[in-house]
Write the structure tokens for this entry.
Amino acid sequence: METRSRRRKLAAVQAPAPAAAEAPKPKSALEDQDPSLAGADGGAGDSISQLPDGVLGDIISLLPTKEGARTQILASRWRHQWRSAPLNLDHLWLCRERNNLDAVVSRILAAHRGPGRRFSVPVYHLVGDRAATADAWLRSPALDDLQELDLCSFSGRLPFPPLSPQPPPAAAFRFSETLRVATIGECHLPDTTAQLLHFPKLKKLELEGVHISESSLHTIIAACPALECLLVQSSFGFYCLRINSISLRSIGGRFDKLIIENAPCLERLLQLGSRHWHPHISVVSAPKLETLGCLSSNYRDILAFDLTVIQGSRVNSLTTVVRTVKILAVDMDALSMDVVIDLMRCFPCLEKFYIEVTILVW
């Protein structure tokens, strides 16, 4: 009994004293104003959650649609941000939900308060038997003040492409006053529609697989006084495009005939030709043109600077040199130093010269 008693006393001496209650951490000034800034678990150190609502909204609007909606579960601070952040509704996610696409889009638009940042959907989802539903989508308050409209083409990624191009819904152009980026694909833009369009803030316009007349194409470009980037791919209904724009900085795509009459800010002229597309391009006035390419070696491709003519990648007539071009890309069937030297004489101020040699195997 004596031995056991000693052991108990010894154990009592060695046992650690109960820990004192930890003093609560002082709250930051931000948390005093709004306790939700501490996050769902109340923990400090979440510096992102302490950002202003406007910044959080910009972060959410840059995320894909599904990930943006999921931010609601991050913390109490984020719970209501998605519904008021600029809406980014992207077809790349919608395509995975195509079995109930109409219901999903309608539910998102009904839940969101707006404004809209980007609305992207294949154009054939907006015509035919979906026309009434599409009209309701496009007139939703959640898309008010939309900045980016992407009526994209299916590009082989989606089933059931349209048998013939249809005009886009009229409601798609209610955003013309606020749009900054517009992509229109796989549709027909009639003259009556083009004549009514005006895009005072549009900076980038892409036409892909669009049926449009020559006069309508010129009308739309003229209706974009702030346009900086023009891309025309696989579109038809016109032969010659004449550029008279004081704002354009970049032109790309495929053209039968392109005439740059007056483009004082133009810096890049891209995607000029291919093995199956042979443009005739004439540059009359583009004093800031720095990037040119890609030139094809096909003799049917013609690029002219005043009286200086380049046919394919060969300089046929060198009357005046082009000193503004600093970046040049050329696609050759076979490397020829004579061709390279002639091009360097034509463009004496080159800083970068890209040469791609394509070897055909039969």
About this structure: The radius of gyration is 30 Å. Residues 1-16, 18-22, 25-45, 155-161 have pLDDT under 50 and may be disordered. The first helix runs from residue 2 to 14. The CA atoms of residues 95 and 157 lie 9 Å apart.
